[in-house]
Structure formats: structure tokens, C-alpha cells
């Protein structure tokens, strides 16, 4: 990766809400950062209910430092909107190819000062932005945990695939190809991973078992099963990781980010290291319509989605792709004109005075260049 010294190791706002207008804003600082990234990128986004420690997870797992994204010991959510780390992390695709990885932290879902519509928009943007999506929760994969992912039920209402078409014309399967890899990280896990017969379960098997449909025909059962069905439909590549509680001392948990790794439970540290390898060694580049996106292209994607939301529409993947292509074509045209002007002027200045036929030849040569 080139010119890493250009990047700052700090969290910068990506998409935040203007408190006066209540509109989403794509920060100029993030846009400037993204335009520096000329290579294909992978994007990790993490989401979860507020005050479940997702920012701490990102800091320890991906950034390998105590402080990065803001964390705190109170019940107030720290991260507002979506924030991005100001320096790419080195990752690798499953075939071993290097890829620049961007890390996005999102506002905690379910905070007392925000409504469900706002939460769904934040969740939808995290899905749309990422190529690898981490969902962070605490405890176990029980009904409460699954219900916290009820946002998936409304994804089709907040994401449009094709411009000018109704989402009613599309199946839920149509969305899967546009959605990221999904990894459910279960924190403070204290159960034994075994089945009904006492045989060991892998964390992936534990997830699949939790996503099995419940028996019954009541409206409540149908709602629970719909969440399960959509998770399996939308996220074909899905996995789960469980992590034990980092400490047993409640008092020290309040200042967890200040503690060195050697003060934490060895099982937790080992789990975090394994999680880091699992994520960074199987990164999927961010793609749209079969094209790998660079940071510059991703910035146009972000801008397109933000404009759509602020105009009262829903983000449209098809329109975002057209927006990216339009900007890429305009950029190529500008570069071509600049190159032509430079070549033409150099040719003329070196040979003045010139006959008309000679000028035409210089024009042809510059145009071909």
C-alpha cells in the first residue's frame, strides 16, 4: 500500500446527521480521505445495539490499539452516525491477494434518543457500504438477539435495486448478490457449544441452529421465522464467532479500553486474535455490477445514497452505479482533454512557425495520444 504516511490514525465522520436540518451529511473530510485511495478496497462495517461494545471490538480486533473509535463506560451511545477509520488496514482476499480495508463504525441501534426509522437507515447504509458486515451482540443467540435484527425485515423498504421499478416486482433472493458477507459476533458468551446430545457444535453450526424455523402458525411465530428466513436469504455467506467476557471483575469492565491485553482473560485475547485472522484473511473487495470499487468510486456511492435519503427517497443501487459511471466518464474526459491540450501545445511551441497542414498533423497526433 502506497503513501500510508498521508493517512491519519483517527476516526473521522463519514455520514452524520445535521442537528439543525436533521439531514444526513457526507463529510468533506471523509470524501478527501476516500479520494486518496486509488486501489480496490474492502469495507468492514460493524453494527449492533447501543452500549454492546462494538467500538471496543473494532479498536482491539482490527486497529490493534486501545483507543480508536470512541468508547465510554456510561449508558449513553458514543458513536453517532457512521464513522470511518482514517487509515486503511491491510487485509487479504481468500486467494491471498492484498486489499486495502476500510473500517466503519456505526451508531448503536436502539438508543433512547433516536427512532426506529433512523436506526433502519443507519443499518441499511452499513449493509450498502460494506463488503464484510459484523453484527455485534451480547449473551447468546436467543430470541432477544434475533429480534434485535428485526431491521432485516424492512431492508427491502429502505433499499431499492433498480431505478423505476417497484420492490414488489423483486424477490428477496434478488438482494443477496448485493449484500455483504455476514459475521455475527456474540460477546460475553458463557454457554457450552454442544447440541441436544452433548456433541460439540462449531460456532457456525450454532448460528445455523439458531436460524432454524420454529414450529407453529401464530402471527408471533411467523414474525420470528421471517427474521430467520430473511437472514438466511439475504446473507448467503454467513458465520458466527463467540467471545467470552474479557474480565470477571465488574469494576474493571468500566475502564476496559485502558487495560493491556495481558490483563484480560487469555480465552478472550485468543478469541480476538482468531477473529482478526478470520476477518482480514477472507476479505471480499467491495464490488458493484462486477466492478471492484476504489476509494474514489466509493465516495460517489456514499454521496449518491445520502442525496437519495435527503430527498425523501431510498438508496437505489442501480442509480448509484449510474452515478459512479457518470463521474468516472467525466473524470476520464477531463483527463483526456488536459492530455490533448498539453500534447498539442508542446507540438506547436517546438516547431513554430507552422503551415496549416503541419498544425493538422500535430492535432491528429495529440488526439491519437
Brief account:
By secondary structure, this protein is of the alpha/beta class. It is 41% helix and 16% strand.
What does this structure look like?
Helix content is 41%, strand content 16%. With 369 residues, the chain is an alpha/beta fold. The radius of gyration is 24 Å and the shape is elongated.
Helices and strands in order:
Blueprint: E1 11-17, E2 24-26, H1 28-35, E3 41-48, H2 54-61, E4 82-85, E5 89-92, E6 98-106, H3 116-129, E7 132-138, H4 143-147, H5 155-158, H6 173-176, E8 181-187, H7 203-210, H8 219-234, E9 238-242, H9 250-253, H10 266-280, E10 287-288, E11 291-292, H11 295-310, H12 317-351, H13 356-368
Parallel strand pairs: 3-6, 3-7, 7-8, 8-9
Antiparallel strand pairs: 1-2, 1-4, 4-6, 5-6, 10-11
Helix pairs in contact: 1-11, 11-12, 12-13
Structural class assignment = alpha/beta
Largest sheet: 9 strands, mixed
Low-confidence stretches: 72-78
Strand content: 15-25%
Work out the helix count: 13
The shape, in one word, is elongated
- Total number of strands: 11
Cα radius of gyration in angstroms: 24 Å
Q: Please give the share of residues in helix.
A: 40-55%
N/C terminus separation: 30 Å
Task: Give the integer mean of the pLDDT values.
Answer: 83
Run of helices and strands: EEHEHEEEHEHHHEHHEHHEEHHH
Keywords, separated by commas or semicolons:
two-stranded antiparallel sheet; 41% helix; 369 residues; 13 helices; nine-stranded mixed beta sheet; elongated; 11 strands; alpha/beta
Amino acid at each position: 500500500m502506497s503513501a500510508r504516511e498521508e493517512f491519519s490514525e483517527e476516526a473521522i465522520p463519514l455520514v452524520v446527521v445535521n442537528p439543525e436540518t436533521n439531514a444526513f451529511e457526507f463529510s468533506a473530510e471523509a470524501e478527501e480521505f476516500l479520494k486518496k485511495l486509488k486501489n480496490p478496497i474492502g469495507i468492514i462495517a460493524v453494527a449492533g445495539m447501543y452500549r454492546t461494545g462494538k467500538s471496543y471490538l473494532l479498536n482491539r480486533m482490527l486497529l490493534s490499539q486501545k483507543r480508536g473509535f470512541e468508547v465510554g463506560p456510561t449508558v449513553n451511545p458514543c458513536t453517532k452516525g457512521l464513522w470511518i477509520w482514517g487509515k486503511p488496514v491491510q487485509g487479504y482476499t481468500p486467494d491471498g491477494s492484498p486489499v486495502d480495508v476500510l473500517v466503519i463504525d456505526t451508531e448503536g441501534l436502539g438508543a433512547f434518543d433516536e427512532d426506529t426509522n433512523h436506526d433502519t437507515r443507519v443499518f441499511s447504509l452499513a449493509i450498502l457500504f460494506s463488503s464484510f458486515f459484523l453484527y455485534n451482540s451480547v449473551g447468546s443467540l436467543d430470541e432477544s438477539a434475533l429480534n434485535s435484527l428485526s431491521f432485516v425485515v424492512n431492508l427491502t423498504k429502505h433499499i431499492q435495486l433498480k431505478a423505476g421499478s417497484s420492490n414488489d416486482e423483486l424477490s428477496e433472493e434478488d438482494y443477496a448478490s448485493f449484500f455483504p458477507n455476514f459475521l455475527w459476533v456474540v460477546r460475553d458468551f458463557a454457554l457450552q457449544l454442544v447440541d441436544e446430545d452433548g456433541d460439540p457444535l462449531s460456532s457456525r453450526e450454532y448460528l445455523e441452529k439458531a436460524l432454524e424455523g420454529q414450529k407453529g402458525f401464530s402471527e408471533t411465530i411467523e414474525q420470528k421465522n421471517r427474521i430467520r428466513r430473511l437472514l438466511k436469504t439475504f446473507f448467503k455467506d454467513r458465520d458466527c464467532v463467540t467471545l467470552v467476557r474479557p474480565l470477571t471483575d465488574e469494576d474493571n469492565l468500566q475502564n476496559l479500553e485502558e487495560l493491556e491485553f495481558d490483563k484480560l482473560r487469555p480465552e478472550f485475547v485468543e478469541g480476538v486474535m482468531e477473529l482478526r485472522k478470520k476477518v482480514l484473511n477472507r476479505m471480499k473487495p467491495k464490488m458493484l455490477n462486477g466492478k471492484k470499487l476504489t476509494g474514489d468510486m466509493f465516495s460517489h456511492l456514499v454521496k449518491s445514497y445520502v442525496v437519495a435519503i435527503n430527498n425523501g427517497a431510498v438508496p437505489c443501487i442501480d442509480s448509484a452505479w449510474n452515478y459512479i459511471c457518470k463521474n468516472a466518464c467525466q473524470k476520464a474526459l477531463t483527463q483526456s482533454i488536459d492530455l490533448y491540450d498539453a500534447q498539442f501545445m508542446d507540438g506547436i511551441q517546438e516547431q513554430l512557425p507552422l503551415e496549416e497542414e503541419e498544425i493538422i498533423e500535430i492535432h491528429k497526433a495529440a488526439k491519437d495520444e
